[in-house]
Each structure stands twice: as C-alpha cells, then as structure tokens.
Write a structure and sequence with these properties.
Order of helices and strands: EEEHEEHEHHHEHEHEEHH
Number of strands: 10
Strand content: 15-25%
Shape: globular
Mean pLDDT: 93
Strand order of the largest sheet: 6-7-8-3-9-10
Distance between the termini: 25 Å
Structural class: alpha/beta
Low-confidence stretches: none
Oligomer: single chain
Length: 248
C-alpha cells in the first residue's frame, strides 16, 4: 500500500479545562481514499481534524502529512496541503464576489496574472460554479455556498480535502449535487458526518471515534451493519434503512 497522505500516531490532546479530547489516536488515510469520520457528539472528531492542518498542534504523539511532520515551523506548508471546508460556509466566504473568494487563497500564495486566472477557473469548474463567478456569496443558496467554499479550498490545490458535516442544511437536490461533486474530485477526502447513509453512499471506509479514541476502522457497510457497535457508540441509521441492502 502507498504511504499515507495523512497519518496520526498516538495522538493525544487535552483542553485547558482538563477535558481529554483525544487519547492515543492512530489513523492513516492513503492517496485517493474517501473516508468517513463517524462518532457521537463530543467524540473528538472536530479536535482531530483541527490537528490535521495545524490549528491545534499535538501535545503528544505525531501527525504527518505526506511525510511532513506537523510542528510549528511546518504549519504553513501543512495548511497548504490540507484544506478544510467547515460546516457553515459563511465562515469561509467573505469577499464581495464568488470569483474573489475563490481567488483569495492563491493570491495570498503570490499567484497573479494568467497563473491566478487558470487556478480560479480550474477550481470553479471542478465544482460547477462558473456561472456564479460574479454573484455575491450572501445571495447564494446554502448548497451553492457550500460548493463555492469547496472551490476556494481547491484553488489552493491541497493534497487532502476535509469536509465537516457537508450535508447539514442541504435539501435533497443540493445533497445529491454535492455527492456528484465529491465523487468527481480526484483528491483524497475525509468526510466528518452524522449522516450515516451519506457516509455509506460516498465512503468505502469509515473510522469511528468515541470518547477520544478510535473504536472501529473498516468497510463502511460492515461497520453500519454491526448493531452492537452502533448501539454502543450512539450511531443510528434512519428507521427502515438497511446498509446490507445498499447498492450504491
């Protein structure tokens, strides 16, 4: 198997109030994988992804991105390699137009002229928002905002894309459009979600985190079919949904 794009080894983290958010976490995600990160509220999922691009630094253990260790002197390069799309796209969209929002990251890397224009067009085309280029982000639907936020991250050409609850507040059509978009991206993806059918639809593999520890890592269909695992870690599928019968 190829070397991991991102890996955490014995990663632990405690907040100043004494809350242990992560305890001896070991995970590995390889190039081209699309992996779901599952778990109940308070499991440590957000703390974990904030370690993956240097918003948090390890208190003990280690995080590596394509072999580069996460430490203070490497934070800027790590953030270039790992793009996070947060749950609320309004947290990431702040420029007057969509085009300016997508351009913001590459411009801060020093790109300009034809190189910048090519990067903007490439990112917008990847998520199908070319027709929104001149629109104000605050006038877009929630689903459109989500795709623009993804375009802004893709414009940085990261090696891994992390999405935090990407289906929250989406109607069924927007949910399907986002699914089509994510399937079309040739990039490693980690999808943090409570939407278990969506995880099954998109992610062949899932990691379950609870109480700051990895409690399961395997084929999504098998994990969601494990009634004891689901009950113990407060994971619930919609009534009548049987992952064994899923044909996606």
């Amino acid at each position: 198997m190829s070397s991991p794009t991102i890996a955490a080894t014995s990663l632990s983290f405690e907040y100043p109030d004494g809350t242990v958010a992560l305890s001896e976490v070991d995970i590995h995600i390889h190039p081209g994988e699309r992996v779901a990160l599952l778990g109940p509220n308070g499991a440590g999922k957000t703390t974990l992804i904030l370690h993956m691009n240097g918003i948090h630094l390890p208190q003990s253990g280690q995080v590596k991105v394509s072999g580069l260790e996460l430490k203070r002197e490497n934070v800027l390069e790590i953030r270039r390699r790992v793009g996070i799309v947060f749950q609320d796209p309004d947290d990431q969209l702040f420029m007057p137009t969509v085009r300016q929002d997508v351009a913001f990251g590459p411009q801060n890397l020093g790109l300009e002229g034809p190189a910048l224009e090519a990067r903007i067009e490439e990112a917008m085309a990847a998520v199908g928002v070319e027709d929104l280029a001149g629109r104000a982000p605050n006038h877009l639907s929630f689903g459109q905002k989500r795709r623009v936020a993804i375009a802004g991250v893709l414009a940085m050409r990261p090696e891994i894309l992390i999405l935090d609850e990407p289906t929250s507040n989406l109607d069924p059509a927007s949910r399907r459009e986002l699914s089509d978009t994510l399937r079309g991206l040739a990039i490693t993806q980690l999808i943090v979600t409570h939407d278990l059918p969506y995880a099954l639809e998109l992610c062949p593999r899932s990691i379950v985190l609870d109480d700051g520890r990895v409690v399961a890592d395997g084929v999504t269909r098998y994990l969601l079919s494990d009634g004891a695992l689901m009950k113990e870690h407060r994971l619930e599928l919609p009534v009548g949904f049987n992952p064994r019968l899923f044909s996606g």
